[in-house]
Amino acid sequence: MQFFDTHAHIGLIYEDPIEQLRTIQKAKQAGVTRIISINNSLHDFDIVYNNLKSVSGVYHACGVAPSEVINPGKNWVERIEQNLKLPNVVAVGETGLDYYKQFGDKRSQIELFITQLEIAQKYNLPVIIHNRDAGKDVFDVLSERLPSAGAILHCYSENASFARKCLDMNIWFSFAGNLTYRNARNLHETVLNIPVDRILIETESPFMVPAEFRGKRTQPAYLTSTARFLAEMLEMDLEELSAQLWKNSCKAFNLPE
Question: Would you say the pTM of this structure is higher than 0.85?
Fold first, then answer.
């Protein structure tokens, strides 16, 4: 079996490049052989990309998260576009909206989000969406501006009704370790009400640790815990589910199986 971690902040697990490589090696030993490396800022992207650009199985997304809306960086649009031409950069993001911590103002966040959707359309790449307490606006923006290559709603947090509204669009639903929490009923209901061929899984490392590892920081090797929980929920054999998730992930990021 092989697994694909579609969202990991490797640079937030460890700053040290050697520890980052060890983390990836541990993941591979656990069967997690592909990882999408995520950064919130362009500064962090530069550092992590240079550390990991030659590591097999590691792919990268480049974008500006809503947390950076006040200061996305000088010439940030041009820098994203330059980075998207680098080897193994396969998506724009993460980007989106976060009204929980109220970074900047809503209008500025939406403008930052829309600009990156336009970049994704220009380069025919999928976009990785951050959504926290902003579901209506995220849906409204995507309804009008979803890139042709689609979008991944990462660390899915909405309910089944929201997911059903998105099924008519080229959108994937990615679930993190919080899926394994007993009180995550909205996520459990969602999983049971969407097609399995639209589901992805991620670690959101170093956050959202699966229940069995509570008290630790998440790392890509823990992805298999979420996969086992999901297989039990869907009453699927783990090997069958892993093959489906792998196929979904490769399709979402336009990578060969």
Answer: yes
